[in-house]
Amino acid sequence: MKNIKVLGSGCTNCKTTVRLIEEAATECGVDIQLEKVEEIRDIVSYGVLSTPGVIVDGQIVHTGGIPSKEKIREWLTIN
User: Fold this and answer.
1) Which one is catalytic: 4, 6, 7, 14?
2) pLDDT by 10s per residue, the chain, length 79
3) Is 28 among the catalytic positions?
4) Could you confirm whether 11 is annotated as catalytic?
5) pTM here?
6) CB neighbours (10 Å) of residue 62?
7) Phi and psi at residue 49, in whole multiples of 5°?
């Protein structure tokens, strides 16, 4: 199971990122534990200054802008 955190204040880009991750996980048949981190203090504590940020299994894999579904699939299928 992949542990994924989406860091963002709840803006449209953050919500779209969450939706794309959920869709990609379903399409790839990968179980995920998805958490939204919306408190600015918590987001900054991860070293992310541009949102949405995405953390997969403890690694920052994306900051700023909406990631492509292809990129998300790569995150989900890499061991």
Assistant:
1) 14
2) 999 999 999 899 999 999 999 999 999 999 999 999 999 999 999 999 999 999 999 999 999 999 999 999 999 998 6
3) no
4) yes
5) 0.93
6) 21
7) -115, -10
